Amino acid sequence: MRTRSIIVILSMAVGLGLLTGRFVLPARSAAAAPPPSATSAATSPAVSPAAGPMTVQHLLTAAEFRDVGITRHIYVQDRVGDGRYSNPACTGEKTLLQTLGGPRAYFRGLMTSKGTDADDPTLAVNAADQVAREVAADADSPAAAQNFAERLLLEEVPCQTEPATHWVYGPTHTINVAPGITASWMGSYTGDQNTTGTAPAGKEPCGGIAILRNGSHYGILEIDACLGTAAMTRIVRAAVTQL
Question: What count of other Cβ atoms lies within 10 Å of the Cβ of residue 223?
Fold first, then answer.
């Protein structure tokens, strides 16, 4: 039947062609689209906020800094406990326990030399060798982690305004990865760049500081390496996602 129908259609087309002087064949029907494959239909899993104890697996790795152009070998030093957690120029010489009264934290130092402070192996003896330092802990609940992160961020805000010629932090940038996973960071500017008491508009930072929150985990990331806006954003995003 299918063959006979085709012959009839072709015969009609030929007849029309004889009357009009043109031969017109019927248009080919569109082929049915193949069903979507399992691969194309699948979507990448959503990032879920952290819950449960902190481990070293939640800390930023040296590989992230190689990806933004740091070519020197980076040594990683970890410890667990208490200690100075942020820029003392903004927060004073307080420990995390003194500020938040929270549980012990994980400290990670990333450095380009093996020389470390005798009292804290996450700090390089030579400040120029410090790439970054992360301090992170579990607050036991997302609400507590949010509270801790907000308090830690407020400690850094005063350093966004300093007398001219004094180093200064720039404006706060926010990175939202997913609900419950967010970070705020400020770039660092030298005293030569601070001519008005605040960070210069339109200039690139040279490292900076970030406050991280992922579920019940929170942290502080100091970046001493001279990274600009794009690299800072990439590193901070990686850190808060890993957290």
Answer: 28
Q: What is the pLDDT along the chain (243 residues), one digit of tens a residue?
A: 444 444 334 344 434 343 334 333 333 333 333 343 333 333 335 788 998 899 999 999 999 999 999 999 999 999 999 998 888 888 777 888 888 987 789 999 999 999 999 999 999 999 999 999 999 999 999 999 999 999 999 999 999 999 999 999 999 999 999 999 999 999 999 999 999 999 999 999 999 999 999 999 999 999 999 999 999 999 999 999 999
* Nearest one of 144, 141, 121, 142 to 133, comparing CA atoms: 121
What the chain holds in terms of domains, given with CATH numbers, is: 56-242 (3.40.1000.70)
> CA 159 from chain center: how many Å?
23
> What is the rounded distance in angstroms from the CA atom of residue 224 to the CA atom of residue 213?
20
pTM reported for the whole predicted model:
0.80
